[in-house]
Every structure is written in structure tokens, then in C-alpha cells.
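User: ok so my PI wants both of these folded by tonight, can you help

Assistant: No problem, let's get them done. Here's the first:
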Amino acid sequence: MTRFDHLFSRSALTIYLSVAALFTILTFLVAIDPATRLKHEDAASPVPAIEPSAARGRVIYMAEGCGYCHSQLVRPALIDTPYGRPSRAADYAGAKPPLAGTQRNGPDLSAVGERQTSHVWNLYHLFNPRSMVPASIMPSYPWYFDIIDQANAPAGALTLVLDEPFLSAGKVALPKPEALDLVAYLLSVKQR
């Protein structure tokens, strides 16, 4: 009897086959089946078309680093229930790159287009977040607006009228195209 004969005994062979079977079953349950279901789910999800204005706004969103403070990923956790259902792979279909975010200092934006539907509110918030949410820690983005005399505002133009300290008396903020594009992107962000 050699020193390796115990490796091929009937009881050892039963153990090896049992472990191999368990490994195969777990591999299927943990890796292969979920990946296959996700692949079929993603294939069935149509990629929504994004308007040109929203596409330009997405570029601004990335350039400003909004994803450093706002996630677009709802975790399957109780604390995330105010933001909607948990995110799925299909939510990022066609998004290149996907903007899941890196952390969440501000609210999650994965369904902001469903939760905050007013473009006017979003413009005020972009100009100075504390004008809408006094406790906000988000920085202001006044360079996306022209500050002009209220008397010189173009007729029918969307202007932001704010009291001091947000704007000086007699002044209004006129959104630049970049501000409108960024808001168009935010309003387009919806979970499917």
C-alpha cells in the first residue's frame, strides 16, 4: 500500500465527489444563474433616448463633479427607501459611463426627475441651494447665470427673482444655456 492509497479510498472519493457537487451547485446559484438573469433583463430593457439638451447637461454634471456628492444608486437598504426602489443593472443601460457616484453627501439623484419635477425649482437650487433648502451644504453655481438689472430683463424670459442676500436689490438671475442643459439632465434622470 502506497502513501497515496488513502486519497483514493472509497470514503475519500465520496467526500471529493460531494465537495465537487456542492461547489458546482453553489457556483450555479451564486454566479451563473444571477448573471444569466441579469443578461436577459438588460437585453429586454430598451435604452431610453436622451434629448440633446440633457446629453449636454450630463457632460456638465460630470465636469462639475456632481457625482462626488450625489449618488445615482439606490441600495436595497431601509435607509434608501425615500429615494425609490433599489437600482438594477438595467437602470444603467446605455449610460456611458454609468454615474453611480462615489458617495452621498447630498440626496441620491437616481430618480430626481420623478421626485423634483420643477425646472424652476432646480434652477433656483442650482443658482443658490440655500434659497430652496436653508441647511444645504451644496455649493452655489452662479457662473451659469447672468446677473442683470430687473428692468433690463428680456420680456418673457425665465428669470430668477431673489431677495438679499441671494441677489442685490433690483437684480435678477438669467439662466445661461448651460444651466438649462444641466436642469434638463436632472429632469431626465428617472429609474426605469
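One down. Here's the second:
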Amino acid sequence: MLWVSLAIVTLFGGATLYFRDPTFIQWKPTILYWAFSIIFLLSPFILGRTLVQAMLEQQISLPDKLWGRLNAAWIIFFTSMGAVNLAAVHILSCNDWVSFKFYGITGLMLAFVVGQALFLARHVEVKEESP
């Protein structure tokens, strides 16, 4: 995911500098979020398990149904975030969009991650360590 992120940032950041048009950098989050959404969507077919499961299965044990729900939540979240960013690009001025991206997107991401943590906390089983 870091390589995808680097490629998109380089491409759209370079286009912004080359064409002197902030539209490219404003579209970058949408493209990035939608790329992440596609990666999460395709992960069960490529990895044989969800991406969330591949990242967290060493720390937490969940039924396959819940791994699927978590993966679906990330797909919906990233798809929605891309759409929200597009709406903000078209509605807000460039300066207001920068503020929205910094405060609004960060806040939405934080709220989503806290919600995921609360969801996972209900399913965590504490293992007793033997002395």
C-alpha cells in the first residue's frame, strides 16, 4: 500500500507542479482512497483471505464472517472518503479544501479507526500466560 501511495503522490504532485494546477493534488486523495478500496476488495481473491485478516490475524482471532465484515467496512469507508473528497473539491475553495483535508479527513479517519477498535475489542479473547 505504501508503494501505491508513493506512486500516486509522485504522479499527482508532479502534475500539480508541472501544470501549476492544484486540481491534480486535490484529486490525489480520491484516487488513493479508491485504489485502497480496490486493494481491499481484491485481497480475498489474491491472498485467499481479507487484507485486514492478513494484517491482524497474529494479534486477534476472529471468525471468517467477522473478517469479511471488517474488510467490507474498510472498502465502504475508503470508497466514501473518495466521494467526500470529490464533493469537497467541487464545493470548497482550494484554501478551504486544504483545511477540510487536514481537519475533516483526519477526523473522519480517526473516528473510523476508533469505531473499528471498539468493534474489535468486543471480540478480543484475553489469553492467560503461564508463569
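The two ends are 40 Å apart (CA to CA). DSSP finds five helices and no strands in the chain. Good luck tonight!
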